[in-house]
């Protein structure tokens, strides 16, 4: 497809339309907060100027400064030339309207668990102690702390870079008194600790999925995505150790992507409760401690 010619770019609306045309012509891949060229372009031009990202219509007639125009052109062209996800280019991502700093040290925030936390759809009312396994940028730990204002949260990751990023996000949201970060392999830094709620969005991409990743996803840390032949390497370990770290009435919420069939085949006696959202079905499960025990 022919590359769109660069029109006269005056207003933010001009840049928005130009970005949409460039992204469609380049046949980019999405999935890092947006699902199409229109939403991607809107997010990029609004976030680049630190405008509210919920609606672009009120800002279409805004005339950016020369420096802002140069920044917009650079970002739009980088998105196409590098196939870099927009949140990495802008160093910002949003979940449930909450802004997080992000860079290539961690997976770009996205999880159906965030929808469940914000919607109050978890099978537990008022957890006082919460654990976020494989916390990455800290986004779910922060959303959990916001959803349950009286809870204390521990968050664990193996990557020092991801934890440094999480530390920054925790500080930005002023939650350092309630969220404690730990470096280690799953439960290992948490000997003797028990929680009312464990949440985890671990690496779960299977070997076939890794082989077919679009270029955008290859910019993310491989260790945050790849999880063996069936995508369940870490999930198996979580299921084994979770009962030792749950309170009597506690439970585990875990996201597994497309791993439902192999998971249920591996554990035919476990009564998985699948927590569906508006955009997902059979990708997040709940198991209580009694189920696991």
Automatic annotation (TrEMBL):
Name the keywords, alphabetized.
Answer: Methyltransferase, Ribonucleoprotein, Ribosomal protein, S-adenosyl-L-methionine, Transferase
Residues in coiled coil:
none
Question: What does the entry give for GO biological process?
Answer: methylation
Q: Name one GO cellular component term.
A: ribosome
Read off the SUPFAM superfamilies from this record: S-adenosyl-L-methionine-dependent methyltransferases
Enzyme class comes to: transferase
- The residues covered by the Methyltransferase small domain are 123-208
Per its UniProt record, what InterPro entries does this chain match? DNA_methylase_N6_adenine_CS, HemK-like, Ribosome_uL3_MTase, SAM-dependent_MTases_sf, Small_mtfrase_dom
Protein EC: 2.1.1.298
* GO MF, any single term: methyltransferase activity
Q: Supply the Pfam families for this chain.
A: MTS
* Protein name listed in UniProt: 50S ribosomal protein L3 N(5)-glutamine methyltransferase
């Amino acid at each position: 497809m022919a590359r769109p010619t660069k029109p006269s770019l005056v207003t933010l609306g001009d840049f928005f339309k130009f970005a949409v045309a460039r992204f469609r012509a380049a046949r980019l891949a999405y999935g890092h907060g947006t699902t199409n060229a229109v939403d991607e372009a809107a997010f990029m031009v609004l976030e680049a100027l630190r405008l509210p990202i919920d609606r672009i219509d009120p800002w279409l007639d805004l005339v950016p400064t020369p420096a802002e125009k140069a920044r917009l052109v650079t970002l739009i062209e980088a998105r196409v030339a590098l196939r870099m996800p927009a949140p990495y280019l802008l160093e910002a991502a949003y979940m449930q309207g909450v802004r997080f700093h992000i860079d290539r040290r961690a997976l770009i925030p996205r999880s159906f668990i965030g929808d469940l936390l914000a919607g109050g759809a978890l099978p537990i009312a008022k957890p006082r102690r919460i654990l976020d396994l494989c916390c990455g940028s800290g986004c779910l730990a922060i959303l959990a702390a916001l959803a349950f204002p009286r809870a204390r949260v521990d968050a664990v990751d193996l990557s020092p870079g991801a934890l440094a990023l999480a530390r920054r996000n925790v500080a930005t949201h002023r939650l350092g008194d309630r969220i404690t970060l730990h470096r280690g392999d799953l439960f290992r830094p948490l000997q003797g600790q028990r929680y009312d709620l464990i949440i985890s969005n671990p690496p779960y991409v299977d070997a076939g999925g890794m082989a077919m990743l679009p270029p955008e996803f290859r910019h993310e840390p491989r260790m945050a995505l790849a999880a063996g032949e069936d995508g369940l390497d870490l999930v198996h370990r979580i299921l084994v150790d979770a009962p030792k770290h749950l309170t009597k009435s506690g439970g585990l919420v875990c996201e597994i992507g497309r791993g439902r069939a192999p998971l249920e085949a591996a554990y035919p006696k476990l009564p998985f409760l699948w927590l569906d959202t508006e955009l997902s079905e059979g990708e997040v499960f709940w198991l209580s401690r009694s189920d696991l025990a």
